[in-house]
User: Fold these one by one.
Assistant:
Number 1:
Amino acid sequence: MVQGRLNVGVIGCGYWGPNLVRNLHENRLCNRIIACDLVPAKLQKIAVRYPAVELTTDPEELIGRLDVDAVMIATPLSTHFDLALRTLQSGKHVFVEKPFASSSVQALRLIEEADKRKLTLMVGHTFQFSPPVIKIKEILDSGELGRIFYISSTRVNLGLHQKDVSVIWDLAPHDLSMILYWLEEAPTEVLAAGKDFVQKGIPDVAFLFLRFASGAIAHVQVSCLAPSKLRRTTIVGDAKMLVYDDTEHLEQVKIFDKGVHFKDPDTFGEYQLSYRTGDIISPKIESSEPLQAEVADFLGSILHRRKPLSDGEAGLRVVKVLEAAERSLLNSGHLEVLPAAGRS
Ligand SMILES: NC(=O)c1ccc[n+]([C@@H]2O[C@H](COP(=O)([O-])OP(=O)(O)OC[C@H]3O[C@@H](n4cnc5c(N)ncnc54)[C@H](O)[C@@H]3O)[C@@H](O)[C@H]2O)c1
């Protein structure tokens, strides 16, 4: 650390890692960046854009350096646990891209190591830093939608098929991290169906169903085998309804003053059901890059010794749902009952 500014390593400079490097480069709390990838050609691209960034093809060398304060990991899921554990064990703060870890056992182990060493552990739930997602949280917390009946989320497009993880582990962390953040509760029941159409053993289409103790239910559809890109979430409450479309540039969030009133009848003749359709309001939402806020939260949490918004516990809650969904999918849609929230 140099005068309150951190030296930060980035491991994994494939598709996503360069975005972390760019946001570190633009953050005044970052002093030096050390980029690491096993493939020299990936580092060459970083060198062309950011000549001041130090480069290494050896993650061990980076993790062992005494002048590095923190490491951000953007490698494939199968490598997250080993790299994150070794980073923590060498006394450095760590940020791990979603999905946090391959199992809840691994996630718990990382949380314990970070707690023991009083180090910051953050998970890359980028959508929790997205202005429309934060605005929706404010709307839900204000009670404007009333009691939440259900959330339905669709995240589909053509590609990118991952070599090692199913679409559940690759795409669903985005929707699950949003839903758990909005509702502030973890599901008690999870059910999933899906299929491996293109690569045998790696499902590329999945439908998840979640049930919450509050009475709310949720549905998440993820696919990398769809004709067009959809990023759409509907939230239906007993007072109003909301649609969030992340592919829109303007009016990403719309609140519909729509609902239904049902008067419990004493007799059949009193049966009354009335539908209400009122205004559609699109709240003003600041435009800013979620990743910029996410990187700022990681560095700020380290320097001010506070918990990041998407900490290890948030990562663990999502991993538990992913595990349950995968179990269910492999068991022909068996209903998985999750233990009450907590670390067990
Ligand atoms: N938050 C988001 O919105 C978001 C978006 C995309 C990807 N991601 C996540 O980022 C991670 C990386 O995804 P990607 O699409 O960039 O993958 P990728 O395959 O394009 O890149 C991974 C890179 O890591 C390197 N690598 C692998 N093992 C390594 C090791 N042990 N040491 C150093 N380098 C190593 C590879 O050479 C490769 O360049 C995944 O966890 C993914 O889910 C997050």
Number 2:
Amino acid sequence: MNAPNNGSTLGGVLTSYSPDQVSRLVPDALGDALERGEIVHFPRCPIELPGEADLKFLRDDLAAHLRNKNVSYHPETDSIPGLKSDPARTERAQKILKQHAARVEAFLTRTMPTLTRDWTIGTSSFRPIQEKGRNLSAHASNELVHIDAGAYGPTYGDRVLRFFVNVNPIEDRVWATRGTFPQLYARFGRAARITPDTRRHASLERGALDNLRTGFLRTLAAVGLPQAMLIDSSPYDRVMRQFHNYMKDEPAFRDDTSSEVEIRFTPFSAWMVLTDMVSHASLAGQYALVNTFQLRLASCRLPELAPYRILSTA
Ligand SMILES: [Fe+2]
């Protein structure tokens, strides 16, 4: 694990990789770092970014046309549903985000051949809004430290990977973390009632009701309501949602910042993290590219560290 071409670690939270270290990476080294719960950080983004004119277009020309808080390219429909704009503007945004997605995907499959096996490629998004002081509800707020529970329907224990680039030319993007899922589970699992002896159902296996729900939602999806699958769930995903909500709602956790570490990501730096593994909050910053992937639990090289295994056995 400590091969000379590994990055330099800051307090076990964040590991930085210089361009030279990236060029000499052993296959799967980055994936193992992610699975151990490290934020993998690139002071210089390891992939080519959209040109300055395209970045300026994303930063300056989209804000007035937003339907949602993000502009997201969806590969499954080859479209950007969040943009309400004229065809030329939509087409340009789509082209930029799609090209960026292809570069991120090529980098990840090259450096992490095992962890990316059978993955599902999610959205390629641009976040145009200043994170600080957005006044969202607690459950939607990025400013409160949390771990992610599956955002696009049930994961059944699969992992959530996000790859970020700060494309603000002058302002840092500021994060906070309070450690990894295993650390937080050991400290707060019982209080959050997610341990097998405190949660409603000890088993994470899907029951008859889960199968019934999934069957019903599949029928709806088959008759033209694909978004029905987004409200599907599983015992594992409900437990993760419960922990996510505990972290944002419970004052004893929410307001105790004693274990918090602040991280500043400078302009044009990049970082990636398993967001179901590492607690995080986005405290400040504007303009980021964010690519989301669902990784198979079966493709993990260190599955004993994954939340599913920990929740199953502890
Ligand atoms: Fe999150």
Number 3:
Amino acid sequence: MADYKIPTVTGKTGKLDVPKVEHGTMEGTGPWISKPEFQEAMNFPTDFERIEGTTTYTLVDNWKERALEKMDDLRKRYRSLQVYLDICVKCGACTDKCHYFIGTADAKNMPVARQDLLRKVYRRYFTFAGKYFPKLVGATDLTEEVIDDWYNYYHQCSQCRRCSVFCPYGIDTAEISMAAREILDHIGRGQKYCTEIMGKVHKIGNNLGLPQAALADTLEGLEEDVEWETGAKVKFPLDKKGADILLITPSADFFAEPHVDGLMGYAKVFHQAGLDWTLSSYASEGANFGMFIGSYENMRKIALRIRKAAQDLGVKRIVFGECGHAWRVAYSFLNTLAGPFDFLDPKYPVPQHVLEITWPLLQEGKLNIDKSRNDEMTLTFHDSCNIARGTRMGDKPGGQFDIPRNVIKAVCNNYVDMNQDTTHDATFCCGGGGGILTDDLMEVRVKGAQPRMEALKHVTEHHGVTHMAAICAICKSQFTKVIPYYGFTMDQIVSVHQLVSSAIVLTGQLSEDEIDDMELDYDEAKEKQLEEREAARAS
Ligand code: SF4
Ligand code: SF4
């Protein structure tokens, strides 16, 4: 059981009241700190060590000088950062817009207060007024207490950018949060979760550390599952040279529920449309956690794996699966990070989203769809923050909102939108984005999910919604974990391509009755196959 109070949701209107501001409700030590060996893999300083008998670490030598040096480097490198630090007029429009503030009431989780943690130090060391009249302009010395506050509260920001939508100056707290984390990375306060995961991508190619053989085995298993389910031989190709499409998808799609059902959906769409595609074992990860820690160098290193995979396999285009921040990094930065992609077919945009393949096929009637197969569900859709506020889809403004909804409505008969104050570009983050999706931040995750849970409860109770679809691996993982705290069940979260997968009728697909007849055989065959594999391993 949680040792903190689980927020309540009423479902009355779908929108929560602004909480009364409290102080220090979320004070703490922040997430687990990255060990020196994880920092080394990221090319960050490693001259710090564990304090004996504790789970914490020292800071690096001369940490203060090095932190200020990094801040100076970042404000000069990214002019937007300095502008954001300079122009806030404290109008307060952003104060009640953050899901972590709404869920925790902690004053430091108001976006402007979160920004001020860094801004006060910036003013003290990099502005005339702050140097000579610090008290007058709210400037603060950089101390170890300040560093602790940064580490704690910048890991209570999922970099979702909701606050920036409401700021009259467009100040992006996410960029300030990324800069803060990058400074922390350089003084021995990296976050274990993000750096450990990126280390695996640099070494093996995916967040899970799943090697080529295990990936091939997993994909083979999925081919068997689809064949048993439909009777059709749908391929999940790996490292296929000369394929037209390289699919880059989050590694959660290979094993987690409901992600894997989405992967089956992409494969069925490609199969039915006769598209020649492949996955890559070298670039078997869509996620790019480099963005979360604000590290351009690490983001670039991960993006370059995709370029190399595309060149080695000789593909014509790159398509991304359902992952929010992966699509943001791809849509906004892939060309800058790893371009030019002039070796790809110029007929297609670089990159493309899998929904940009599926939606035109549905419009052209090239996929045989039986919507009634999803009739046991009434769907709603969660706009993932990185997609909603950091990207587009298709060739019309707002495509990132319309295309997923259009696809859901094309494969399901029952669809309801949530309260409009919580959707489209005003969407609330799931509470687990931006490097927060780790068990050591469970309280932050549960409380941060409250605004979305309120909106979901409203449509559940007033409009009969049974399931919520998402197109982000982090949203799916976060919701399946936190949704039970609010009285829902894990299986109420679905992938959009899972809905496509259920509704699509493949050429040569068996009828429902034939499939029912096969179900027993399927279970038996699966059991037998497992026994054979066990026996083979034992020998
Ligand atoms: S979590 Fe989102 S809304 Fe909250 S401060 Fe960060 S970017 Fe702004
Ligand atoms: S809305 Fe913008 S200008 Fe106003 S307080 Fe927030 S960050 Fe500052």
Number 4:
Amino acid sequence: MEEDVFSYVNLTNAVFLENIYETYLKNREAVDPSWRGFFAGMAFGEKASYEGTEAKVIRLIEAYRREGHKKVGFNPSDIKSSKYPSFDLAGFGLGEEELSSEVPTFGLLTDKRCKLKTLIEFLEETYCAGIGIETEGIPEEVQIWIQSELGTKQECSSGELTEIFEDIFGAELFESFLQTKYPGQTRFSLEGAETFIPFLRFLLEFEAEDDVEEVILCMAHRGRLTVLSTLLGKPESEVFADFEDSDLLQDSGDVKYHRGGEGILKTSSGKSLKITVPPNPSHLESVDPVAEGRVRALQEAKGSPSKALAVLVHGDASLAGQGIVYETLQMSRLEGYKTGGSLHVVINNQIGYTTLPKDGRSTLYCTDVAKTFGCPVFHVSAQKPVDCIRAARLAAQIRKKFGVDVFIDLYCHRKYGHNEGDEPTFTQPLEYQRIKKTPSIREVFQAELIASGVLTESIVSDIKTRIDAKLHNALIEVKEKTKGKKEVLRKIREEETPPVSIQTLGEINKKTGFVPEGFSVHPKVKKLVEARVREGEYPDKKSVDFASAELLAFGSLLEEGLTVRMSGQDVRRGTFSQRHAVWIDQKNGNEYTPLKQLNKGSFFIYDSPLSEFGVMGFELGYSFSSENSLVIWEAQYGDFYNGAQVIVDQYLSCFEKKWGLGSNLTLLLPHGYEGKGPEHSSARIERFLQLSAEDNWTLANCTTPSQFFHLIRRQAHLKHKTPLIVFTPKGLLRHPSCVSSLKELSTGAFEACLEEPSPNKAASRLVLCSGKVFYDLLEERKKASNSSVSVLRIEQLYPFPKEKLQALIKKYPDAKEFMWVQEEPKNMGAWGYLEALFRLHYPELPPLTYVGREESSSVATGSYAVHKKEYEQFIKLAFI
Ligand SMILES: Cc1ncc(C[n+]2csc(CCOP(=O)(O)OP(=O)(O)O)c2C)c(N)n1
């Protein structure tokens, strides 16, 4: 799919506004009243020309628009009265006596003039009642649209009111059923926020009525079970089975409130909306970028950005506190990551565990991060279901129309402690006294609906009987479930990587080496590609370096019809000026992407924002939802991956075990000690090794371009998808010995361990290593002229190539000494891991001895001279 399906409305489209403004200046009556009001009241128009009372009225209107939301009263307990805006007439230079005087309405009302009192009533009703709307700082078109919509309140029909009531009642009964049957068990009750259920249903229905076919609904822990059951149709018996917590009834590697689910929502007009709640770890908000990545992949697969949508549900404390929210929003309008606007819903119970907003954030609202990105925010009270539904409708319309993220902040309370076994009165005695006395949302709404004649006592009682019976029957079903054996899933790792002929490789080089007519390519890039174009004529010549091998690997996958997507900081050129995946015309700045010439598959490469957590999360999400693709995230330097440690620890290493998911996400982490200091040297191999178990991923450190080529291709063709982490070289990118021939690329496969090209089979000592130190060892051996040492390379650190290494070692019958050489300090790198494995797998061999740097708290020295000295000292030891 072409990328331009992602060209959304340009939010700073001034032309749009200017046209209307011009018409307005010529003839005010020719534009819609809301526009008239906007141009006058927003100081956009001829404010300066107004004087006296008119100017004062304009200031008053502006104040209502800017500050009115603070007066709505969606949450009287949170916002101190001192923060209420004062719309005191005196503050605007107006007096009480002017209330009955006629003032201009600036198009806000149908009449041109009205009494000041009438205008104020309108402003109070529009900006200070029901929904608190924050529009300051959002794009002008969106502001104008919202202003015009505010006047048109859509009423709920009595059928809709009954539906809303049933949802609220259903949620309440479901929660209280669990509370009685499984007292004290953690479920993260939704009580105090039950309106969330009808709110979400309506929101999703509004979206489904437009083009949206699929929603990734990122649930917070709170209310997740209720959503899965009451909205997505997960059978109650399955929910209860999780509470029974029998190893025979549940089949998951994660707790119930982290697991995902799927469902189809049928709308009232008969449309179907597929909803996926992705699983997530406890780490709040970490799933946000993952969900966005999934949505992006779905949109591309469906060929349209309007067909898939992310709805992200947040807690107030986590939204305000977690930086990943900002990182995710930062990606939201970028070419490589945008998803056409997401909907954010906050279950704002005004507490995070035991922490109140005053200690949890520096801003008035928990949603204030939205302002940085000019996203509209609606504040509503869960006690006012009808206002909530109205906000849902407005939010969905704005998202659809303008492609922006929209936030709905649902004020509510938390009925119990943080979880159901937690006692909240230790820390919030007064709040919980108040909450205890607060009637439930259902009770209040029920009374309102009975008073207005929408419901009767007997209808309410029928609804209750029906829901109660359903819950009781489900409980009986789960208790009676016969015990069965769980089926153990066996992993099948098929690795069928088709070979690539020399001819194809030569053609890829030619096609990607073609310089378009008139394109002024950088002279260094030109030289590079000219050499590549000729490579096909000398298939035995060792001229393929790492970057060329990567290009050929990508090119060959594209020729097979696969998608290759890569992102990370500065990846288009490459941190080390090695990739040049996108050329920039030196005369006019135009861009050209040679790999896009291979158009059987799709090639996407994006320079990412300076974020690791967000971008790695996004790429992981993309890889979950994308078929036939290889998705790659590259770190600027390997050590920076730890900015995304949550993604590695909580997702990448364990998503299969916890949630049964598959992904072939590939991380390229530049690694190697080149005297550049404690940073930029280590991708922390040791940490990845510690997280390795049950074939969860592949860890590799390739020493030749052909190995890298084969590894990348193998990864793209994996049937059983697991991630790949490659500790990629820096110095080796231009090392004269680190080259392969096209022939090596077209034959063979990735080898988990390697001998030297012409080893001494009579060696008495075998030196084992991984990565670039191999070349240094060969160099040092030359200097030491010690031919009794042979070097073996472990190219795949995990899964450990036990048999293959054993077979190689057997080729050296005279070897009596076994050494491990590494650049990293002793407490880092692969030493600890390999020493233990060596003893375990090869008990007949003498123990492995260590050659390398001493233990160190810091990764490396900051001095190049010290680095060199350390190196010279230890590398000698391999040959003494
Ligand atoms: C990154 C992270 N830090 C800490 C926690 C522990 N924790 C779990 S829930 C919670 C409070 C969350 O509050 P909020 O986001 O307002 O949601 P609520 O539980 O009130 O619905 C905390 C601190 C966590 N899960 N994740």
